[in-house]
Amino acid sequence: MILKAIVHEAEEGGFWAEVPSLPGCFTQGETLEELESNVHEAIEGWLLAAEPEITLLSEGKILEVAV
Q1: CATH number for domain 1-67, candidates 3.40.50.1760, 3.40.50.880, 3.30.160.250, 3.40.50.150
Q2: Can you tell me the distance from the alpha carbon of 53 to that of 21, in angstroms, rounded to the nearest whole number?
Q3: Maximum Cα–Cα distance for the chain, whole Å?
């Protein structure tokens, strides 16, 4: 899975990033290297915590796919 993160320079120094495709997924870091590591961690945490509510409209089946 490839996701894009938007990197911003923080006013107080360092950087922060947002992942637009994952609402509420933000992180920060003092350096770009730290930020990149934190982005990976934030995405992983977001995906693990996300439990979408699924409502089936008919007698369908749910297929889980690992990415």
Answers
A1: 3.30.160.250
A2: 18
A3: 53
SS (H, E, C) 27-48: EEECCHHHHHHHHHHHHHHHHH
**Residue 4, CA distances (Å) to 12, 25, 40, 57 in order:** 24, 11, 11, 32
Cα separation of 58 and 36, whole Å? Answer: 42
Q: In the predicted model, is pLDDT for residue 65 greater than 70?
A: no
pLDDT in tens, 49-60: 876 655 556 676
